[in-house]
Write a structure and sequence with these properties.
The complex is a heterodimer of chains A (281) and B (183). With 281 residues, chain A is of the alpha/beta class. Helices cover 40% and strands 23% of the residues of chain A. Chain A starts with a strand and ends with a strand. With 183 residues, chain B is an alpha/beta fold. Chain B has a single domain, classed as fumarase, CATH 3.20.130. Helix content of chain B is 26%, strand content 27%. Chain B contains six helices and seven strands; from the N terminus they run βαβαβαβαβαββα. The model of chain B has no long low-confidence stretch (mean pLDDT 96). Classes of the chains: A alpha/beta (281), B alpha/beta (183).
Amino acid sequence: MRELAASTISEHVAEMCQEANLYLGDDVFRVLQNSYEQEESPTGKEVLRQLIENVEIAKNEQIPICQDTGFAVFFVELGQEVHLTGGTLEEAINAGVKKGYTEGYLRKSIVDDPLYDRKNTGDNTPAVIYTDIVPGDKVKIFFAPKGGGSENMSTVKMLKPADGEEGLIDFVVEHVRAAGPNPCPPIVVGVGIGGTFDRVAVGAKKALLRPLGQSHPDQRYAELEQKILNKINDLGVGPQGFGGRTFALDVHIETYPSHIASMAAAVNINCHASRHSERVL
Amino acid sequence: MEVKKIEAPLSDDKVLSLKAGDNVLISGVIYTARDAAHKKLIELMDKGESLPIDLQGQIIYYVGPTPAKPGQVIGSAGPTTSGRMDKYTPRMLEHGMKACIGKGLRNQAVKDALQEHKGIYFAAVGGAGALLSKKIKKCEVVAYPELGAEAIHRLEVEDFPVTVVNDAHGGDVYVAGAKAYAR
């Protein structure tokens, strides 16, 4: 059994919170630059130019890419041969979030009670944490801060197996069309297919962790991703909804086995600030 | 790309000269307010009490910035989703507000009120908070400091980039733009 201090996790999490909010990944930056080259609408091009300049200012002047520094969402792969000392995984992550958001001058956007009190917790905790127990003695942590504007434009639908590929495409494209300019396009579209009502939503969110430009390993789903992406961009909604050819930067699908009676589907949208950081400890 | 430069606050003539799709650079004084501050302003209007700021001709920016670091004027400061303010916007226009800056769709009541009261709905680029913060030269809290990031701030801006979404003539760039580029 390998021992790992909970405080080590906290230190890394604090750094990850700041990193993800200041530095946009090279994968997203490259796709933004390609979109800028290809965009036909002059206003759309100007939006993409501003977004590229924004990423550079954020990096050079250490100003968060977006003022909505997000709900702190973590996906953890915890090796079953790791023994955490001095605290639980949840405590360790939340201590890191508190430190990272406070010392990094990031916005605290979490309220304690969702319906009645809505009082800010003051340190952006608690985080949303998904943990998989995996073989080995390592801890892999993915961090993806999630802004409210794009998260609000998410949905789950229990499709019928008979709806098939066409029903799935219609569901995703119609949903994204209705979201329009609200999730700050150009967007990244995460699609979950299969599993239960709850599992499919996690799949859609996990789909957003995959680097942009990397297709689904199953050729049929890779083609479906491209098909949906083309249909979304053909809506003409464009950057920020002002009209243009770049409504979405990428579509990612994650699947899970399904009940014989169901075909659950979910859409989770990310804005162009598709932020993430990761560590293996 | 053509860009129009305007000074805030705004006159009716200036508002009427702007059309959906125009790219505009704003300089001058604007005020911030989002959900919580709007709620407080509307409560004062309901009671017939005076407001902490004079809305006449003003531009209201829907923003909740990140905390400023020492030496910074303001932290990251991009627009938030405007639809959450739909409930309050017609009343704000009745009380003299001339324009608001946010991002995303507005409901029909807001679009109608913009025509009735000669107002404009601008969008700034959502997610360009670092770039937009550089266009803000001065920032001070003028009301509701207890709301933190949601307090009403007075901002002095220089060449703050926005696009006209809904104009005072019924134009809507979200409709016209998608139509022009759909295939």
